[in-house]
Automatic annotation (TrEMBL):
Pfam family membership, one: Thioredoxin_5
Protein name: DsbA family protein
Amino acid sequence: MLEAYLFVDPLCKQCIKSEKIIKRLAKNLNTHFLYQFIPMLNIKILNNTRVPKMARIHQQLYYQIVMDYKAALFHGKKRGQNFFITLQEELLNDKDRYNNRLVLATAENSKLDLDMFKEDRRSQLAKKSFEADQQLVHEMKITKPSSAVIFNWAMFNYGILFNNVNYDDLYRVCHSQPERINRKSIRDNHGIPVPHVSIN
C-alpha cells in the first residue's frame, strides 16, 4: 500500500493543481493508494513564498481556512477534500472573498452537516489536528508548499520527497515498481530521503 502526503498552501493555485494530480493518481493506479492534503501554516515558509509583509496579513485568514478544512474532514475524507478544493477555487478565482456565507454555502454544497460543521470548525479537536499537521511539516523538513512525500507501507523507513509535483514522475514511481520506494529509488528519482512519521 502506498500513501502520499501533499503539503499545501491554502491560497496557492499551484497547490490546487497538485491536489488534482494526486486525486488523478489515486484513480489511475492499480495498487492501493491513500493520500492526505496537509495544510501548512508556517510563517517562515510563508515569508519565503510571498511578500513578507503580506504574510502577516494572510496568517489569520490561512488559519481560518485550515480550521474549516479540518472540520470538514470530520465528515469524511472525500467530502472534506472536495470542500477544501472548492473553497480554494472560489477564493483564488476571485469569485468571492472569504466570509461566513461563502464557507457555509461551500459546506452545504459539499454535503456536510451544517450544524456539526459549525461546531467543529472552532473545536479543540480541529485545533489539535491542525497542530499535528504543523508538527508533521517540521518533522519531515518540508520547506515549500506543493511538496509531496510518497511512502510504501511495506518498506516505510524512508519515503521520496518531490518538491515539484508532476503526474508523470509520480505515476512512474508508484506504478512501475512501488515496492522499491526505498534508498535506491530515492537516488534514481532525484528524491530526498524522508523518515516515516506516524499520523494519529
